[in-house]
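Q: What residues go here?
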């Protein structure tokens, strides 16, 4: 049996968002942000506002995968945070 990390369990069994498959591996920050926004607005598995849920999930992923992320992908994900703020009118 493969070992699973606590963060994988938290994502599957908590009130995390129902995310599009492989959303965090995309190359376009706008596409990542749009997908997270859509998931947050349509998910029944979230707490807080859609903005809080989307930003929390993105930050959670960056923090958990941070050590193994390629610098280019980390930069893309950080840019997705700015795009999320823009999409939700927070800038």
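A:
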């Amino acid at each position: 049996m493969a070992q699973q990390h606590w963060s994988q369990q938290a994502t599957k069994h908590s009130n995390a968002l129902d995310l599009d498959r492989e959303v965090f591996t995309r190359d376009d920050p706008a596409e990542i942000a749009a997908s997270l926004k859509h998931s947050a607005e349509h998910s029944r598995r979230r707490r807080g506002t859609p903005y809080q849920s989307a930003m929390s999930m993105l930050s959670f992923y960056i923090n958990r995968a941070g050590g193994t992320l390629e610098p280019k992908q980390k930069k893309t994900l950080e840019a997705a945070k700015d795009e999320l703020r823009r999409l939700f009118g927070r800038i």
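A: Context that may help when evaluating the design: The chain has a mean pLDDT of 84. The chain is about 60% helix and 0% strand.
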